[in-house]
Design brief:
single chain; alpha+beta; D-Amino Acid Oxidase, Chain A, domain 2; eight-stranded mixed β-sheet; binds flavin-adenine dinucleotide
Length: about 375
Amino acid sequence: MKSSTTFDVAVIGAGVFGAWTTLELRMAKLRVLLIDAYGSGNSRSSSGGESRIIRMSYGDAAVYTRFAQQSLPRWIELSKQNADPLFDPTGVLFTALPSTPHFEHSRATLEKAGIPFDYLDNSTLCARYPQIEFPDNSVGLLEPGSGALMARRAVRAVAAAATKLGVTYRQEAIFVPPAKDTLDAVFTRSNGRIEAGQFVFACGAWLPRLFPHLLKRLIHPTRQEIFFFGAPPGSGQFSPPSMPIWIDFGLAVYSFPDLEGRGVKFAIDRHGPAFDPDLGSRQISAKSIRDVRQLATRHFPALAGAPLLETRVCQYENTNNGDFLIDRHPDLRNVWIAGGGSGHGFKHGPAVGEYVSAMVRGTAKPEPRFLFVAQPATWERSIY
Ligand SMILES: Cc1cc2nc3c(=O)[nH]c(=O)nc-3n(C[C@H](O)[C@H](O)[C@H](O)COP(=O)(O)OP(=O)(O)OC[C@H]3O[C@@H](n4cnc5c(N)ncnc54)[C@H](O)[C@@H]3O)c2cc1C
């Protein structure tokens, strides 16, 4: 066995949940180790994408509105310290048919939380965004202060900020030995032993592999495809401020404007098939490209014939009801699970980090929705 080192907390997984957690633990003066098998923001991780939406509209799930509201200033602060921006205030436009419950609940929650937004009736919506074909009668809710997080760059900036503050980082693949009541150490594939007082597993879609008995029925990784279409040359109609991020939960589609010249991002927000985060193929079929091009052109007629600049395959790590799963391991009292981002976790990184750090230090009031006991027995395939 190689020599061991003792930390107050070892955080396994340097995605957005693990990176913010280590930063918060270190700010609380703990000795912290951050470990990742492939590196922070790697292409297999859910946090390793080009961009992620930060929005406040969450229907009546006020805890996520609060978490997003708490997180945005932290992202902006970090963005100001970074050479390249991590946040682009594109605005986020959420559309729906009139009286759709999720839309009306979002509107009420935003009002209650004092978050600025504009309600756009159908004629205002169509006049303001002529480049988007909305379903007939759609109405809109525009959050002007929300926007895009440059995900891979942002998560790497968080991990760098943590190491600058004194967090130790190692690139290692961890496995968990059998243990009863308390976990003394974890092991690396190269046979290293890592000891810590407490362990936080923030391993996204890999969590069911590390804890199969506990998590294989609670976290379901699914394959998700992303497409970037080239905007017409010299045209600002697909760039901010002319075009915001657009989400329509009824249609289950979302799009980003052309950010940093990468193309107009378009995706379907339905759960794809089961996916292996290590070995799953990240190529996209010709049929998928045809189907998505047809859908994208229906909503953005000016993109007809646009070149497909890039595609990406990523995985959601869905819990049974779409809520985060952040709780103490039921059998190991010094082990914490921090996962279940379920396709909407990135924006909440700062608030999740604060919350996990407080849970580990015993100062948090547990959020009932995030606990094991709140998870239904079967997968309901909800989408936030
Ligand atoms: C296509 C797509 C679009 C999305 N859109 C949005 C959006 O618009 N807005 C939003 O807020 N969220 C969005 N999400 C969700 C969000 O990206 C995720 O919820 C979030 O990134 C999850 O972060 P994480 O830290 O839990 O997991 P990850 O980012 O996957 O990080 C887990 C890390 O653990 C490491 N790891 C795993 N096993 C081990 C091991 N044994 N040893 C060491 N390290 C290990 C991995 O290498 C990885 O880096 C989207 C997700 C996808 C896939």
